[in-house]
Amino acid sequence: MELDKMDENDWKYHGEGNKSLVVSHVQHPRVLRLLKYPAEDSENPPQTAEQAYRQIQNIVDFSSNVMSSLLGEKFIHSGEVVKLPLEFVRQLSIKVQHQRPAWRCDKVMDIYSGCALCLPNLTSPALHQPTHTPPLCIEIKPKCGFLPSPKHVSKDIKTKVCRYCMHQHYKVANGKWKRRSFYCPLDLFSGNRQRMHFAIRHLIEEPQNNFKVFKGGQCIYSSKEGSDESPDMNSLLHHLRPYFLHTNNRMNSHVTSKAVLNDFIQVLVNALLSSGGGDGSVVADRQAEGRGFCEASIFNKERIRHGSRGLPSDSVLFRILQTQMLDTLDIEGLYPLYRQVEQHLQDFPKERTRLQIEGPYNEAFLEKLQKCPSENDGSVEYAVAKVHQYRVAMTAKDCSIMVALVPSSEEEEDNESLSSQRQLRDFRPPAFSYSASILDLDPKPFDSIPRQLRLDQKIVSCYLRTGGALPKGPVREKEDCTLLFHPM
Ligand SMILES: O=P(O)(O)O[C@@H]1[C@@H](OP(=O)(O)O)[C@H](OP(=O)(O)O)[C@H](O)[C@H](OP(=O)(O)O)[C@H]1OP(=O)(O)O
Ligand SMILES: Nc1ncnc2c1ncn2[C@@H]1O[C@H](COP(=O)(O)OP(=O)(O)OP(=O)(O)O)[C@@H](O)[C@H]1O
Hints:
six-stranded antiparallel sheet, five-stranded antiparallel sheet, cytoplasm, alpha+beta, nucleotide-binding, transferase, Phosphorylase Kinase, domain 1, binds MYO-inositol-(1,3,4,5,6)-pentakisphosphate, single chain, binds adenosine-5'-triphosphate, kinase
């Protein structure tokens, strides 16, 4: 990328979240991730160019020195900070404005610092040889996959119903989404294929900001925010069909939609359980049974036909869950330690640097959180280590997984020629090369912790007021999850 020859016409709007806007290059597999800030500050940027550069460098350092070590290097692409011509950024911001969803326009793209994060475009992977059939990339924001320990929480419901399921009631009550999603992260993280299948089916039904599908780098399936309509499942099936043209032991152009969806989900489950490019050796996640079920999940656990060995220890889900579980105290148990650190910093402002409250996110930071004593000895070092652990866990609870499915070349030849020889062969599931990456690994600010506590209280009280009183699903019984599932 020649930074002095940047042309806004080479870039197009790709997506955005709460704090960054992403544009992709029209030819090269690259994206630029630009910071956003509140629209009311648009005339008056909240930070200088140097501060913005530092913020993005902190993101790179946090991802490459801290999260990469916890989650596994093979899943992480930390990218690099780039300095862009201001005129290019200004033109880009004008160009993408009309494509931005209205509900994200309470924030504007930073056009003043000229800094951005340059990353590989994870929706245009170049796995193996180039293929005719574009890769499918599936983005999942799985959210928190475990229940907190009863030791630290004041409301019993938090040990029974997971945060995501409770939060759904709060989001619907506050108009963020029109309908509740019946996705439950505990099902996705269970390692049990039936439960994972069920969880993904519900992500597809109500994707919200937790599920997107890209084909050849274009988003072909996502929730339309603020819209009453469900996303167009028929259009998704239309896109997926050519990738899943065999069923009942036959290459078949009359595959039912249900079979296409089933195969798609099954391939996705395989990818999530695979080693993500490691040597394939698997140690089962033995703690899985203890994590159990969320009482709000509409998965019918009596239907489980196959026991689970839990998540393979080198799978992307296992690594994310382990990192999320660095939150051992829950926000309620953590908050007093946060206050202790805050008080210490008020008394000794210079300690902020030594304790690495805002970084630098280097090996010493990682060591601080990894060498945390197991018992609270009352020291500020213990409190800081727990706060650091909590912030890292928050990042892991808010990251996304991008699974890339590239049809293997043999499969493609089969699809293209519909060879009769292939029709006579025994059934095997569609062949894809998988890869998984983790995105959005930004550090969460130290001072976001009080907001976490307030939000937690609001979510729980809203659930107890509304959701807890309702039947588990307003119109559904616990669902029969075996209908769509055929064992591997
Ligand atoms: O608090 P949560 O669980 O609602 O998570 C926020 C996300 O909401 P979600 O529930 O996933 O729709 C929220 O996502 P959306 O804006 O809702 O798409 C952000 O990811 C936010 O992170 P940050 O403050 O921008 O760094 C997230 O905030 P953090 O709590 O991770 O800081
Ligand atoms: N490296 C990448 N390759 C392809 N697409 C990407 C990449 N990084 C981000 N995206 C897309 O851009 C969207 C927004 O990016 P991201 O999640 O990093 O934003 P954010 O503002 O940090 O999100 P959040 O709301 O979680 O704070 C993602 O959901 C994803 O679809």
